[in-house]
């Protein structure tokens, strides 16, 4: 297994990596653009694009913005409202996995910016049966989340005739350098199917004999080309026009608005995905079984590229977190309606036998990881200069410190008392 000479990504990254003659991956090379591009000029380009869509829907909404109780939602909305002066319609897909912290972050987001928000909430029984199928077929407990989060904004764009959808960073660009920032790549159905949904659209899972009728999966169907063309739907990514730095952006939102963070089970990044009961636990552990690395490698590679972490520090964080066994499988099994043992048995079917071997004592061993990989001879030549920025991710005190924030909770009040919410108009 080959690893990048600069970051710690392996060659089997599911989105696809290319290594150059120096052993540096395509993700690192494209990331260099963040230090070279004129971002003021890029933002001016963003402003000219969004200005063309201002008030095209009878003056009510200028664009659609997908949001959740974590990730970069606050930064995206703040940029659109405060800097671009647009009036967005927020849309959210309820994953059923959200903890109270995520609901609070969402409630404050809606309250602080005083924005309309529409949410898709599918029935538990439908999601349970869909998830049983995606565990069996794809080894994924998160497929329905990715499907819903990526299709509901497009459905709302068609339904309300709002052409412009604004997303955050493009994962394929930011992680593996699939595109250049200057390509200004936009949302496509093909990328969603091939990468987000692991090659399976909702239509592909319809099987009447398996108990997955079309009516159950229809809420996750992508609008057809005629509908998209009629409205002129397009989805742009802010990461093409803003120097994307998730840590710095989150800390700005923590300082201004009190965005809540929370300890994550299998990574040092306590800012992203703090809304989900399973993302950084069971879901990430499945990623380790299938690909031989976890989210901690994603986060370390990102911090290395942003000049905050050395390669050696990144590897030490992988050693600290990668082998942690999550403690949320029993909770998820209960949500799914099966025993924990049955869940583990199903997931073990997806362990990548090319990456793992089982000892005579029944212990699984990962053949090669960033911890044990051969260190390329030219590591020092490809090393980036550390800027001195701290890569620590401190945890902000919870607004509800007595809540363990481990159990998912589906529905919560959609607002907070006004006197308790900070103002965005400053």
Give the secondary structure arrangement, pairings included.
Layout: H1 26-31, H2 39-51, E1 63-66, H3 73-83, E2 88-93, H4 100-113, E3 117-120, H5 124-138, H6 143-160, E4 164-167, H7 171-176, H8 189-196, H9 214-217, H10 225-231, E5 234-237, H11 246-257, H12 279-291, H13 295-305, H14 311-321, H15 329-336, H16 340-348, E6 356-358, E7 364-366, H17 379-382
Parallel strand pairs: 1-2, 2-3, 4-5
Antiparallel strand pairs: 6-7
Helix pairs in contact: 13-14, 15-16
The unreliable regions are none
Q: Please compute the radius of gyration using only Cα atoms.
A: 21 Å
- Tell me, what is the CATH class of the largest domain? Alpha Beta
Number of helices: 17
Percentage beta strand: 5-15%
What class would the helix/strand composition place it in? mainly alpha
User: What would the principal axes of the Cα set say about the shape?
Assistant: globular
Largest sheet: 3 strands, parallel
Do you know the CATH architecture of the largest domain? 3-Layer(aba) Sandwich
Order of SSEs: HHEHEHEHHEHHHHEHHHHHHEEH
Overall number of domains: 2
Q: State the share of residues found in helices, binned by percent.
A: 25-40%
| Mean pLDDT over all positions | 94
Q: N-to-C terminal Cα separation, in Å?
A: 51 Å
| β-strand number | 7
Widest sheet: strand ordering: 1-2-3
Which topology of the largest domain does CATH recognise?
Rossmann fold
